Amino acid sequence: MSAADEHRTAYEVLGVDRDADDAAVRRAYRAAARRTHPDAGGDPAAFRAVSRAWQVLGDADARRRYDLSLPAPGAGRAPASCGAARPGRAAASRPARGAAGRPARTVRYEPPPGEGESDAAVLDLPRSSQRVHGAPRPRGILPDEHRVLRQARTLDLLLRHVADALPAARVLTGLRLAGRWGRPLDVDHAVLCGHRLALVGSVMVPEGAYTWDGSDLRSRGRPVAPPLLGPAMMAWQQVLPQVTVGGFVHVMTDRDALHGPVIRHARGADDPGARADLLTAPPAPGLQFVRDMLLFLGTGEDPDLVDRRVLGTLVERLH
Fold it and tell me: Where are the domains of the chain?
């Protein structure tokens, strides 16, 4: 597969329009799969690309999230709201309207529009203007519906409650970085806002009340280990020394409830020395998870800034 092929959208791989209905996408996938299947003399690389495209577009939730990561149709140039920047100053985009009709906070870009475009490390302005980048990790051989559901719910929270409150926040899904001994460090989601980067994991637990002891969530004496983010946090802090990296875990049950499950903290569990991981805040259910994220991202330096170099580094590490 050529370098140009690697940058085609899933729609382009299957040869359908972005507004194609599910039946049209399914027909296009079947035709492309027959055409590219190695057993029929097709190119294995092309067949893998077709299979990946179907993984994204063949599932309604995955397709919705993927569509959010794409530029708006026709967005081939810098948004008019960004305008031209005066030398030495970052340009602000046109103020958006808040949920109550009040002017929202403006977004600044560094480098400002019109500067740094020839620097390969700087993400171009159309993509820097996107709120969402990436797509969930491709499914493995065995089905993992819990992972799909966890990621969908967490992404929905990040978009509705974090990105909407912080216009400069950029949500990334499917971040991967090589760890020690070449072992990949996968992170479900990350949010860049100003000079802060939040890495996000999630865990689904049965209904009930839980106690957080600094390393595990426990219910009736049975432990539930949240995802370990410490290694990824340390690795990304080395890659991006100019930002502060934090770690957060969204805890949920089968029932989509923002307030559940109930998590109590054991005495001393919140002391830094008691924590087994480097999490910035203890694992938390929906609304508390959102509050912790907003506190971390919104109180950092320049929360209205989109650093296009840092964002470019992150986008390059999407799987």
Answer: 89-316
